[in-house]
Amino acid sequence: MIQTGLHHVTAFSGPALRNLDFHTRVLGLRLVKKTVNFDDPGTYHLYYGDAAGRPGTILTFFPIERAAPGRVGVGETQETAFRIPRASIGWWTHRLIEKGVAHEPLIQVFGEPTLRFRDPDGMMLALVGVEEAGDEVWAASEVPAEHAIRGLHGVTLLLDKAEPTAAILTEVLGLRESGREGNQTRFAGSAALGGLVTLRAVGGFLPGRPGAGSVHHIAFRAADDAAQAAMGEALAARGLHVTEQRDRQYFRSIYFREPGGVLFEIATDAPGFAVDEPIEALGSDLKLPAGLEPHRAEIEAVLPKVA
Length: 307
Ligand code: ZN
Prior knowledge:
This protein starts with 5 loop residues before the first strand and ends in a 5-residue tail after the last helix. The protein has a single domain (6-302), classed as 2,3-Dihydroxybiphenyl 1,2-Dioxygenase, domain 1 (Roll), CATH 3.10.180.10. The strands form two sheets. Strands 2-3-4-1-13-16-15-14 form an eight-stranded mixed beta sheet. The chain has an eight-stranded mixed beta sheet with strand order 6-7-8-5-9-12-11-10, with helices on one face. The chain has five helices and 16 strands. The chain is an alpha+beta fold. Helix content is 16%, strand content 36%. The structure holds zinc ion.
C-alpha cells in the first residue's frame, strides 16, 4: 500500500548542543543524521528519528546559537506530536517532572491521552498514547524500549480558515478527513507513523513569527519521483507555485506554500539515511553532500562542537 502522511517536520532551535541533549537524552530519539543546512552550510541540520530513520519518525532542526525565540501564530505548525504506547503516559509524566520539563496536565484530544510539553526553545510538542503504537524502537537510549517514542503522531496547523488547506491534504497529498472536535478537523494518511494532520481554524489570530522553537516546514511523503511529480502537477494546476526538485541527499524534495501560509515539502521515501553511512552508525559523523565535501575544513571550523 502507498504510504501517505508526514515524512518529517523541520524546526528552528537555539544552541545545537542543548537541542541534541534534549531530543536524544530526555526524549530518547536517535540522532540519525548530523549534516549541515545545504542552503546555509555554516549551520547544522540535525535529524532525529527511530533506529532506522524511517519516514514518519523524523524531526529535524536548524540550530542557531543565538536565535531569538519565535512566536506561534496563524500560518504555522502549532504542535508536533509523537506516538507512545497508551500504557506509557504515566511513565512519561514522571519523566517530564523528573527532568524539569514544562508540561500541561494530561488531556484527551480526539479521544487520545495527550501530554503537551515544550522543548528548551519553547517548541510545542506532545506525547500521545495510542494502542498498537508499534514495536520498532531505538533501544540504545535512556528511555526503556517499552516506553520509547515510536515516531511522529502528527502535527496541528494553526490557520485562519481550514477549507483551502483541507483541499490540498485530501485532493493532492492522499489524506482523508477522519474527525472533528471543536474548531479542529483531523486528516489521516495511510501511514501509521506520522499519519495525522489536524487543522485548527482560529480566524483573526496573530500571524506567527519565525524563530527558535518554531516549525519551518512540514514534509509529506511521496512513494517515488513519479508520484512526487504528479503531486507537483496537481498543485501547479491549482495555481500554486512549486519549486524544482532539490536533492536533499536522503530524499528528493519539492516545496510550496499551501493556501493557509504553511510551507509544505513533498519528500521521496528513497534513498533514506543509510545512503552515506551504515544503519548501525547513523548520526556518528558529520556528513556532507559531495558538493560541500571540498569545504569540510571551513565548515567544521565554524560549526559549534556538539560531541
Ligand atoms: Zn524538509
